[in-house]
């Protein structure tokens, strides 16, 4: 039941709301247009929407191949629910910072560089640019990402986004559970793809790149003896990511990499749950 004048007031209030809603919609469209324009000016780095999540982390165990021949993971039981009177399961780990899918903090090769806990959180969520050298790496175990590969990427996709991570997709992750992954020869020299130091220097000099990532055990090519890419890249207080999985499932540009690096004080790196938002 409505008191006298109630219907007229309701009608007036509805009309007022419709006008306000329409104004808000127009304002929203105008703002959206401005935002889209601004985003266009900022380029691909501004995009943060995604439709799927791609796992870039290998599962880790004592069977994971390691350059020293031992993945160095020990899982010791502290408390077990199989014990009488216990309802909890707790393990203690002993593992190598630089085995499995892991981050290299600058301090790993730079005495004045950031330790892993000092890397800002915003530097661990970056636009991802993937350079594909699978064709060459399938024919040459010592293939490297060169400046020509980077320039070819630019020609096809445009500028490298500011503060991005540039990743090498060599297809090497398919070898991860075999001896081919480390690929020692008879002289105990390793053979797997990596970045050429000239490619690292090109990115340092020409682009505002924050990180490098590889699907092999090292930023440097396997047979290196002096690790020039580590020296140049980590020496510039930038970080790297090694033993990445599934880069073939991620487009060459337009996605975002998220690196869950451990925040352990003083650490030189560590196991990192990593994924791409596509």
Describe what you observe in this structure.
The chain has helices at 6-42, 134-137, 147-157, 197-206, 228-235, and strands at 53-55, 74-79, 90-94, 102-104, 125-132, 144-145, 164-169, 194-195, 209-214, 239-242, 255-260, 269-271, 273-277. The N and C termini lie far apart (55 Å). The chain has two domains: 6-42; 53-71 and 97-277, Putative cyclase (Glucose Oxidase, domain 1, 3-Layer(bba) Sandwich), CATH 3.50.30.50. Helices cover 25% and strands 21% of the residues. The protein is globular and about 65 Å long. It is of the alpha/beta class and 278 residues long. α4 (197-206) runs parallel beside α5. The strands form three sheets. A nine-stranded mixed sheet has the order 1-13-11-5-7-9-10-4-12. It has five helices and 13 strands. β9 (209-214), α5 and β10 (239-242) form a beta-alpha-beta unit.
